[in-house]
Design goal:
four-stranded antiparallel beta sheet; 15 helices; 395 residues; 9 strands; globular
C-alpha cells in the first residue's frame, strides 16, 4: 500500500479456545496475556517502551479458532515491531510471578464479562447450543479452570500449539515484501524456533457437538434489562454462500434501514438495541439475532423477530432489501481494505484458515452476483432449522 506511511503487522496462531481440553479452558487467552510479560531479552516494560517511543500501537485478541498479536507503526519503524513480536512469540519467559499476576488479571476480566449482560447472553447461548464441547466454552475460561491451571500446563500448551507451521505473519502498508521476509526470518530465529518449520500443524480438536442443540435456556441475573440471543445453525467458513448470508444478515439486522431496526425499534419501540449476526467456524456456523429490552417486552419482541424471519423464509425478501444489503457489504469490505490494519487482519486470517485470498474486484463480483432468489432460498433453509434461545435478565 504505497500511498500510506504506516504499516500493520500481525502474527496469527492457529490456537484458540476450540483447541483446549476442559482442564485447559482459557489457556489460549492466558497465553495471550503472558506473552506480553517479558522475554529473555526484554521485560514487559521494555516491550511497552519500544512501541511507545515510536508512537506505535500493540495489542492482541483470542478467538474460538485463533489468536492474533498485532502492531501498527510508521513504515520506518516496522523492524522494531516485527522484532518485538518475534521475540514475544519465540522466547517468552513464563516466570512463576508473571503467571500468578496474570491469573488475577484474567479472573478480574472474567468477572467483568459476568457483569456484561450481552456477554452473559452469548456465553449462555454457546453453552446450551454446543454443550460441554470446545465451541460451547467461554474463550477466557472459567473461574475454576483459570484458578486451577498450572504454569507447566500453560508451557506445554504453548510448546504444542505455537509452532512455525501453525503461524502466519501478515503485514500490510508501505512495505517491501523481501525486506519483510528478511525481518521475520531474523526475528523468529531465536531459540532455534524456525528449526521446527517442518513440523505438521497441530491437529484441531473437533467439537463434540457440531450440531447446535435447540431449545430455550434462561438465567436469572440482577440486570435491569433482559438480553436475549435467538440463533440457528449457520454456514461453515468455507461455504461459498457466505456472501449470500452476508447480504441476508445486512437486510435483516445490519443497519438502521434493516428490518429488525425498523420493525422492533422504530415502529414499535420494543428495544433500544437489536441486531443480527453471522459467525463462521471451520465446520459449522451460527446465524442469530441479539437484543436487549425491558422484561415486559420480551414476548412481543420475540414475536416480531420470529415474524420477520418467517416472512423472509416465505419469500418476502424484496429486491430493494437485497440491493441495500449488497451495498452495505461492498462498502464495508472496500472501505476496510483501505486501512492497513484491516487489510492485515483480512489477509492473515484468510491465509491461516487456508482460503483463497480474493482481490477487491473478485469480492465485489461475488457480492454483485447475489440474487433475491439466492437470499430467499438461504433464508428458507436457515430459518427453518430448529432455533436456540438464550434469555438473561431479572427473575
Amino acid at each position: 500500500m504505497p500511498g500510506v506511511r504506516s504499516a500493520a503487522v500481525g502474527v496469527w496462531v492457529a490456537a484458540g479456545s476450540r483447541d483446549e481440553t476442559p482442564a485447559l479452558n482459557g489457556a489460549s487467552h492466558f497465553l495471550e496475556h503472558l506473552l506480553f510479560k517479558g522475554t529473555r531479552e526484554r521485560s514487559a516494560w521494555d516491550i511497552s517502551v519500544q512501541l511507545d517511543e515510536v508512537g506505535g500501537e500493540m495489542n492482541a485478541f483470542t478467538a474460538k479458532e485463533s489468536t492474533c498479536f498485532h502492531a501498527r507503526v510508521l513504515d520506518r519503524d516496522l523492524p522494531v515491531a516485527i522484532d518485538v513480536l518475534g521475540d514475544m512469540m519465540t522466547a517468552s519467559a513464563f516466570t512463576a510471578a508473571d503467571v500468578e499476576a496474570e491469573r488475577e488479571v484474567i479472573l478480574d476480566e472474567i468477572a467483568m464479562h459476568d457483569d456484561d449482560p450481552d456477554d452473559v447472553a452469548h456465553n449462555l447461548f454457546a453453552a446450551h447450543a454446543f454443550g460441554d464441547s470446545p465451541l460451547g466454552r467461554p474463550v477466557a475460561g472459567t473461574h475454576d479452570s483459570i484458578s486451577a491451571m498450572s504454569r507447566e500446563q500453560i508451557r506445554r500448551y504453548y510448546r504444542s500449539r505455537y509452532t512455525p507451521s501453525a503461524m502466519v505473519v501478515s503485514v500490510a502498508g508501505n512495505v517491501d515484501h523481501d525486506e519483510v521476509v528478511d525481518l521475520v526470518a531474523r526475528a523468529f530465529s531465536r531459540a532455534g524456533f524456525l528449526e521446527q518449520a517442518t513440523a505438521s500443524v497441530p491437529q484441531r480438536r473437533t467439537s463434540v457437538r457440531r450440531r447446535m442443540r435447540a431449545g430455550t435456556v434462561r438465567s436469572s441475573k440482577g440486570f435491569e434489562q433482559v438480553n436475549l440471543v435467538l440463533g440457528f445453525p449457520g454456514l461453515p467458513r468455507g461455504d461459498r454462500r457466505r456472501h449470500t448470508l452476508g447480504v441476508l444478515d445486512a437486510a435483516l439486522g445490519g443497519g438502521t434501514s434493516s428490518r429488525l431496526f425498523q420493525e422492533v425499534r422504530e415502529r414499535r419501540g420494543l428495544a433500544y438495541s437489536v441486531f443480527s449476526f453471522a459467525s463462521h467456524y471451520t465446520d459449522t456456523g451460527i446465524v442469530g439475532v441479539g437484543a436487549g429490552c425491558l422484561p415486559t417486552k420480551v414476548e412481543p419482541l420475540l414475536a416480531v423477530v420470529r415474524d420477520q424471519l418467517a416472512d423472509m423464509a416465505r419469500g418476502g425478501v424484496t429486491s430493494e432489501e437485497v440491493e441495500r444489503g449488497k451495498g452495505q457489504l461492498r462498502g464495508g469490505i472496500v472501505l476496510g481494505l483501505e486501512d492497513t490494519a484491516s487489510r492485515m487482519f483480512r489477509n492473515g486470517k484468510t491465509e491461516l484458515v487456508g482460503e483463497d485470498l480474493l482481490g477487491v474486484e473478485a469480492l465485489i463480483e461475488r457480492i454483485d452476483s447475489v440474487t433475491v432468489e439466492d437470499v430467499t432460498a438461504l433464508a428458507a433453509e436457515v430459518f427453518s432449522r430448529p432455533e436456540t434461545l438464550a434469555v438473561v435478565g431479572p427473575a
